[in-house]
Structures are given as structure tokens and as C-alpha cells.
Amino acid sequence: MTVDEDMSPPELIVSRFLDELGLEWKHEYPVFILDEKERPRLWTPDFYLPKLGLFIEVCGSKRYNYEYRIEMFKKNDFRIIFLHHYKDEEKWKRYLVERIKDIHRTRDECVEHMLKVYNIL
Predict the structure, then answer these.
(1) Longest Cα pair distance anywhere in the chain, in angstroms?
(2) What's the pTM value of the predicted model, to 2 decimals?
(3) Domain 9-117: what homologous superfamily?
């Protein structure tokens, strides 16, 4: 959880919020993806939360179109939260926490189903 001198101002703000939440994070942690033509690519989402297995991409601009990145991360089945930092501070903070909660609820349901199938519960 070390601030990187290459962080953008929005990334710095998000990193401080992650610290407030007590979440360990890594900045620009590289991930391997296959693009739309199945070519290997190395991308670096803004944050990786290792204990949660989640990535965060800070959308710092209304002008940049993130659709391609969203599509490629979905195609490669990455759990990534696109965080629109330029929106109201309370709104993006609440959105981040709610998305983390939703992702983990889905994971918990998958594990619970697996345990029921194998009569482990």
C-alpha cells in the first residue's frame, strides 16, 4: 500500500479511501488478457485488492470511453470495478463498497451451492 509517484490525482484519492477501509492494494498490478482477436495482452488496472481478488479501474475522465476495457475484462472473466471518480465523492465511495459487497455475495452463493451439491454443509 505504497503511494506511487506516477499515480494520477484521482488514483491518489481512491488509494486514500482504500486505506481508510483497511484494504490492502497494489497499484497497476499487471494482468494477462486475450483481446477480441485472441491475442495476448498485458494490462495494468489501477488497483488490485489481493485479499479480495478484485481489481479497480479509476475512470478519471468523462471524455474517455471505457467500453472496450470493460468488454475485454468481462471477456477474460476478471472481477473489476470501474469507478467513476469524477462523480460525487459520496456516490463513488458508496458505489465501490456496494460493488465489493455484491461481488462477494455472488461468490458466497457459488461456494454454498458447491457445498450443497457435495453434501458438505
Answers:
(1) 51
(2) 0.86
(3) VSR Endonuclease (3.40.960.10)
